[in-house]
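The protein record minuted underneath.
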Amino acid sequence: MSVTSWGNPARASRRRVALVLAITLLLGLLGSLSTQTARAAACPCTIFGTQTPGTLADTDTAPVELGVKFRADQDGFVTGIRFYKGTGNTGTHTGSLWNAAGTRLATVTFTDESTSGWQQANFATPVTVTADTTYVASYYAPVGRYSADTGYFATGSKVNSPLTALQNASDGGNGVYRYGTGGGFPTSTYQATNYWVDVVFSPSGADTTKPTVTGFAPGGGSTGVPVGTPVSATFGEDVQQSSITFTLTGASAVPATLNYDSATRTATLTPNAPLATSTTYTARLSGAQDSSGNVMDPITWTFTTGATGSPCPCTMWPNTTTPATEATADDSAVELGVKFRTSQNGFVTGVRFYKGSRNTGTHVGSLWSKSGTKLASVTFTDETATGWQQATFASPVPVTAGTTYVASYYAPVGRYANNSSYFANTATSRGPLTALRNGTDGLNGLYKYGASGFPTNGFQATNYWVDVVFDTSATDTTLPSLVSMAPVGGSTGVAVSTPVTATFSENVSAATMTLTGPNGDVVPATFGYDAQSLTATLTPNALLAASTSYTVSVSGAKDAAGNTMAPASWSFTTGAPPPPGIAQGPGGPIAVVTNSANPYSKYITEILHTEGLNEFRMIDVSSLSASALAPYDVVVLGAVAVDAGQAATLSAWVDGGGNLIAMKPSGTLSALLGLTAAGGSVDDGYLKVDTATAPGSGIVSDTIQFHGSADRYALSGAQSIATLYTDAATATTNPAVTLHSVGSNGGEAAAFTYDLPRSIVAMRQGNRAWAGQERDQLSPRRSDDMFFGTSSSPDWIDLNKVAIPQADEQQRLLANLIQVMNRDRMPLPRFWYFPRGLDAVIVGTGDDHGNGGTSGRFDQLLANSPANCSVADWTCYRYSSYVYPNTPRLTNSAAASYTSQGFEVGVHETTYCSDFTPTSLAGNYANDLSVWRSIYPDVPSPVTNRTHCIPWSDWATQPKTELANGMRLDTNYYYFPGSWVQDRPGFMSGSGMPMRFADTDGSTIDVYQAVTQMTDESDQTYPFTVDQLLTNATGPLGYYGAFTANMHTDLPTEPQSDALISSARSHEVPIISGKQLLTWLDGRNASAFGKVVWNGNTLSFSITGGTGSNGLTGMLPTAGPGGSVLSGLSMAGSGVDYTTSTVKGLEYASFHATDGSYTATYSAPPAGAMTFSALTVDNGAATAEPSATATWTTSRVATSEVAIGTSPTSLKTKIKLGDATRNHRIEARRLKPGTKYYYRVTSTDLNGRSGTYPAADKAPATFTTPTRDTRAPKVTAARVTALPGGTATVRWATDEPSTAVVQAGTGKSDLEPVARADELSTDHALVLTGLDPGRTYLINGVSTDAAGNAGQSGTLKFVTPAWGVSEQSTPTFRRGSLNGDVSVDDQDPLGRVTLSGDSRTARSGTFVSGLLDTQAMVVWDRAIWDCTIPKGATASLQVRTGSTAKPDTTWTDWTKVPANGRISGASRYLQYRVQLTVGAGANAPSLWAVGFSHNGDAPPRDDEGH
């Protein structure tokens, strides 16, 4: 049993008591609500009246916002805030009222406070509140020392009608707080503590408070005021503009214009002309009325203008000002900024920042509007080692008086200057410039970690020492220039479809742009200019020539001031022409007959490559002749027109022993195929494979979809291999696939009555008629729109069949047909799908939107890879991360290092989540790749891709554009959205196999489609999703595949990615990068069999492996002509080891396929009767409908049949497979529980000789099914550990193997499954993700046994802590270091940190975690850890914090976490260590989960689908 420990090992041994307390106090299990008081109060009224706290002043001295959640039982008004003040609770207090979402509704500063006791401050205007709605009242205590009574809200609400302070967990936790300078919306809770915050409530809201002025500018008594300065005043509440009287008087009244901004409640008086110099002016303000008619008291103030007309150019800080901290320890790349206003119209001509000694790298300054529009940017040059640095914009930027702007600079290595709390209480004004006080217009002291961009985060009102240069007038004499161009000068290998772009330093007009070839010929092209991005684009009207040098010339561009650019030119060279395609094939015994009139017919070669039958040649139907067909054993005929003469040629060839497989055959072939046209067709229907037939054995027996039109036929001598269905359940009498024996020479003719390759493309890529449509109502248009049905049209993919790789199963049926039909001539070797016989691989990918999680994710994969693993052999876990340029912690050298270790760093190309045209997409790629290559010059150009927001605006522009840019594996097909997926693991495209795209005409595009079947944003549950895919691939179903996952790399770790790692480990499946997969696919498809010859009883062939085909596995059917069986394999005279297995009903021998010449010997089967061995029946656990699986081996390759019944003399039920194997497996389903069954097995070899076991003269074998199980699993020890960061772990045990589902919601009526594991177990542990902080959740754990009986944990209630960081699984724990006897194991589904070794001896050790990164500066709050500490064991938790990516001397010392879990300090990173001990003979302690809350927000992340 685990307990939630707060760091006090001495208490942990009393684990049962501790667990009860933890559940009662921290998780808040459902119970009857109680109230502390319940009486009506005369209003105006409060919650606590004259009550006195038990603890008047806590010893905590950290600045903190403290609050209470409350409701009123009637509509009314909150007129003010109260709090109880104890000794030491000094400083300026501010009170606030918030709605439940965190919007501040009103604020007020407390004045005239007493030394202690209740303090009250009234809002300028009463705030309307709605009955039965939760609000938060809070106050800010700058030095802590607040009143606090722990457990106050734990057992009931505090009711003083009409007000109620809520019981803890009734709407999230109550007794809320937020640490940090300046306070903010409080969301953290600790043990239901009452911090004695109150409101003043009145049912009626008569407003009798006069409007007041909270600030004005220029300030009273100001001197040296610029003559162009407007006069402004800000009110404490909104007033009526028409009621304002605002005048300015000097020697006489000053003509001026009055404006009022209701959003900022600011009246501004702008003189019509500059004021006189050295003159005193008087401002008078009166008459302003609020909405209730209250009139302000008049105010008057004076100021004096300066002696000169303008003191500018000017800055907010003089050069003599220096920061308190010149270079912080923080070494993260970050954009730092300041909000400012000017008091007069003018121009910002440049940006400044203060530079400390370690603030190195290239700095870029920017000016932004308040909403984040970039107005100008400039790169700093000629910097000094330290001090103020200044850079001037290419053109001055006009700014408007009284308007908020943001100035920022990018510090690529951090180490910035700062003064904490600088803007907390005051603004900084100098001349016409003002750096705003924190809260005047949102936060001030801004930053953004990661790639350069608009800074919006704030931390403790810190001044990062960013400044501007302002002037009242400016003359632009700077020439426009080019700041970037694409392709860059001197670049090579440029795609022939690439448009040319040039980005200017400022907005321009009249630009001329030309592109010329090597002879000076101008390339016809279309010119365009985008003023927002300052980019000119020249798009050639046709593809450029390959391997050709081109020159770009730009001239004539003028800025608004008439300055003309200096002409610029540069050159680039296009890439070589692509190599010839591999569709032609290497040659061999298989011919693929196609015709250019139907390019889909050529897609057959892609199917054969995927199925490993790399021994074909493609020929055109027009060349059909006896001599052309003579070299081939098998002809696969595409859906092409065959005239009577060609049909006669094919008939003669089949009659002579050839094997023909025809796709949607011409009518001229009906007689050869043993079919008679029945008229009509089945369109976009289903088919059902007969698994009792030899080709159908091993193929899925459910109905599966096909797309396109299938002709209806009647059988006329042919055998039906599969039957057409009009829907999933309605059969026709018409075949879908047939097989016909022809003549006496063993020839056979098979038919797919639909066009298989066209259907495969349609299943994989969607409905081409829907391309370009927005069908899921989620822009932009994506790949799922081509599968997404509407009320008038069903989904293109039957999601009830999504677990079946429907397209793959039909391809495998074709492969089976080829092998079975050609068995009498010779066995055909093939290659396996993946290296070393792997049934499945995970393609690990993630998208990093400049948030910097890539390095951490790669490091986690390194830590979780097996010792001495091999990248080449896919035994090391690897990922692809598609990154925005300037992704933090991913420098060129770091990216190159990770690449050398087998990871892939690619560009996260973006269309800015917009739909594209071919031209715009080509421009996006050109720009993004140009920037990416300039930042990562030592990293190979990307060869795989996922575009941000996964846009797919038409059928095939995306892969064609990728191909033009050297990218040949696409992951943009995305199983999404969650409302459509509905947590059904499977194959949106009907396939787990990466295969090439087809264009609109059916021609093949040399880019592989790797569908992203698993995402962290499709509402899929984990580990259920990945477990299901891998179990189905590696188990008897044989749903093999390469399963692509997008687990966003914005964060170093995430639970979904952790589940991926754990599932891969348990299923012994590799995790590889997209680039590794592409290398393998090209190598495998370029591998070939040659000189395939049958002579006597020997098959000879050669193998030539393609580049990148490491681990290539060859496969030989063990059954040969005349019933012979493989008896030996050699290469160059040396024996080759092989293993046998059954794949889709056929037995193969698998061997390591190295280059060389091979000889396979086939011998006659053993003489005499067939022998049987190893007959067993696994009748499994009790299920609702019992089943039993019979397995046996035979001495010869044979079919499989079971006769079964409940009487030894009546074995009437027969189950038959047309397989060809010596290892037999048949499952009997829908049996009766508790019943004795009798059975015999029969196998028939390929010569028709049968054997039965037990023999007919012997008693049949028996087995008994389990009795009906009606008892539900008993669920015990259920517990929840709510962790910071929006996660929680849920654990329980059952007394029998069962599944696990967690239902969760905010109320009993909305519980829905949110986490799931379908593998049967008695220990259950799941991670919940996506939880909101400070919210009350209900959960129910459900376990279902094999018989369908469900047990439940009962409803548990818990409150989520504030945001933070946490670890709760083996993959995250493995990032840490182990000392002594500490180990990380997989004792339960999530894992733990514990002590290993002999339990008879004392043991001890220390676990030190990896760094936990908040990706922001935060104030730390509390630790939460779930740790089992048995009697005789100890565990202690320690932490240290810092802001460098590697702990150094700037980090804090290790500090033991106290019993209350409180952590102090502010930083970006945290590291913890756990010290464990256990005495001899005692059970070891175990750490299951740990987390640390802080006052920050959720870390940044951009999804693809939202």
Q: What stands out?
A: The radius of gyration is 38 Å. The chain is about 10% helix and 40% strand. The domain at 482-573 is CATH 2.60.40.1220 (Immunoglobulin-like).
